[in-house]
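Copper chaperone structure dump, as promised
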Amino acid sequence: MQTATLTIPAMQNEAIAIEVAKALETVRGVESVHVTLAHNRARVGFDENLASPTQLRSAVNAAGFVVADAPASGCCGGCGGN
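structure tokens r here:
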């Protein structure tokens, strides 16, 4: 299993967090979704043979939300940026 952390700036309340989580859960291969409102992040566990970070971003975009780009420092975001 691989993990991706996505930052969704518009994820400001529980209703949006639920909508984002549902969108991510529709991607084939997603095994877990944990959202953190305090940091506007979704941590997604997925089978890399079935899903990709690009597919995760596309699912969030299709739900009407933007995923922020990873920091220019080269951070993959996997640690949550901490």
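The chain has a mean pLDDT of 88.
lmk if u need the other ones
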